Amino acid sequence: MGISERKTRERGERERRIVVAARTIAERDGWASVTIRRLAEEIEYSQPVLYSHFENRDQIVGAVALEGFGELAAILRAAIRPSSTSKERVEDVATAYLDFAFDRPAMYEAMFVLPTGLRFARSDTPAQLRDGFGAMATVIAPFSQDADTATETFWAALHGLAELERHGRIRPAFRAQRIALITQMVSGQP
Amino acid sequence: MGISERKTRERGERERRIVVAARTIAERDGWASVTIRRLAEEIEYSQPVLYSHFENRDQIVGAVALEGFGELAAILRAAIRPSSTSKERVEDVATAYLDFAFDRPAMYEAMFVLPTGLRFARSDTPAQLRDGFGAMATVIAPFSQDADTATETFWAALHGLAELERHGRIRPAFRAQRIALITQMVSGQP
DNA sequence: TTGACAAACTAGCAATGCTAGAATAATTAT
DNA sequence: ATAATTATTCTAGCATTGCTAGTTTGTCAA
């Protein structure tokens, strides 16, 4: 009988509607506007229904963040052009990373600032969470013995640039120079 | 008459007690536990009194953060030893910065993550906010033409390392290696 | 038709930031 | 000294939040 299949499918669709609504509201009005009540209204179910899909609000944020990690990974991979030099690839990935952070601040916030209940560096860590790191490692590896440590450091620099600029601590006008500086340092080529 | 002097003095003392209480509770139980009700209870006044000192909760966080910026600046300056080489100074400042971030996570959160209502890069920006940057600029300047941009980038790298490690995204055991890598890149000396 | 189970809803709790309006204390004017 | 005024502080409560207990509604097998 396909009844239970239909039910699980409908459940899945409802869950997606929750995540999509959360993302949409967050991108338009910020995460503070993503309340359980508002999401419930959006999907046209009562509030407790949300808790049959997610343990709590943080996990809804986490579901959106997971999407974000997948998209970031794709964007970073797409930024790596075969025709580019190794140094250009570093610069392109850095630029793509920061563009992502500034174009989708709510998504970036979900991924890196808000509590999400996501588990990193575990055996059950979803592929999306490792993928972005992999893309960065690809462009960093040619310049380093210890690619993991170098990638962590590169990633940290990008994340710091994103956060400090987002909070108005560093000058937006000099973003390109900072990227150039990092690229130069990583590649060792002026 | 010293009556009004006494009053303003007592008001100032009460304000300090609010800030101290906020900091103490945050460092022990996290910022979520720093509620207006709890602060009011701590200083033994009713809640509305807090709003005669601060516009809202964010500004209380901001007052604590301002203290933190002063302390961070002092710590960074103290980390610069005259006997050290330029390269060692970079490493020492980086280490001191991260030690600060990990030893006082609540304070660091107030300074860099939570909304505080603090204004940066303005004419009325308090000295504390500029001072830490100045300390970093001191050790970066010898290696750079454009000290400001280089310092911003250095700072971003440190901030990124602090945040990613705090959120469990990078391996804590490799902190020293990452610092060494940054130092090496900044100084250009392996 | 009935009984058992699943799904969804109503209603409400406890906690939050913040504030209007009343009450009290202190100061000034008469 | 007393009354009027001003400054301080408090009580009480609003609106909103995440979350949940308990009830109702719907579904399916016996």
TrEMBL record, chains A, B:
Swiss-Prot/TrEMBL keywords: DNA-binding, Transcription, Transcription regulation
DNA-binding region(s), residue ranges: 35-54
Pfam families to which the protein is assigned, alphabetical: TetR_C_33, TetR_N
Gene3D superfamilies: Tetracycline Repressor, domain 2
GO molecular function: DNA-binding transcription factor activity; transcription cis-regulatory region binding
Domain HTH tetR-type: from-to ranges: 12-72
InterPro entries attached to this UniProt entry: Homeodomain-like_sf, HTH-type_TetR-like_transc_reg, HTH_TetR, MT1864/Rv1816-like_C, Tet_transcr_reg_TetR-rel_C_sf
UniProt keyword DNA-binding present: yes
PROSITE patterns, per database record: HTH_TETR_2 (PS50977)
Protein name: TetR family transcriptional regulator
